[in-house]
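Schema walkthrough. Field components (list of strings):
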Amino acid sequence: MGKTMGRLLRVLAWLSPFWQFRAAVHRRCGVKIGKGVFMGYLVQIDSEHPELVEIGNWVSIGPNVQIMAHSGTSPYHRTTGVYSNPPKKVTIEDGAWIASGAIILPGVRIGKGAIVAAGAVVSRDVPAWTMVAGNPARVVQKLERQPRVDSGTS
Ligand SMILES: CC(C)(COP(=O)(O)OP(=O)(O)OC[C@H]1O[C@@H](n2cnc3c(N)ncnc32)[C@H](O)[C@@H]1OP(=O)(O)O)[C@@H](O)C(=O)NCCC(=O)NCCS
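Field assembly_structure (string):
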């Protein structure tokens, strides 16, 4: 896919009125996305390395979430070699919920069924079935799985 097409597709992925379509367009941009994924408005997923972002089944991603797989330094840093950081894979496991405005940083794995609270900045892995919040995100709650709300995603 050409760069211009990629840019146009990303705008569609941010703003399309249907969540299924937004997820489908992110997928078309190269993000690995499972089934039943709710995709909020204005979700930004690494535009340089979309293939490094993997989202499992039944994940829910709120509006304004940012998922980053690389730390693109400034040209100054590149020419001086003062700082560099290779791109790293981001994984969001089945059934996780990333609430609005959270930022997921390169290299992070969000465990199965985890909840990332609104506005959290996630710099370290999140264990399955925990809720994290804050900047940097820390575990604020352990989640108990209730059989009643089992959606058959185990
Ligand atoms: C994650 C969330 C659901 C937790 O709600 P809750 O179960 O009522 O949790 P509580 O408010 O009891 O919070 C538990 C602790 O985490 C903290 N906390 C909860 N959400 C937080 C947040 N977004 N940022 C920082 N701390 C947060 C609370 O201050 C509390 O800490 P304390 O025990 O020291 O007081 C809620 O805070 C949230 O982020 N909702 C998302 C809303 C949203 O994005 N909606 C769009 C739909 S995609």
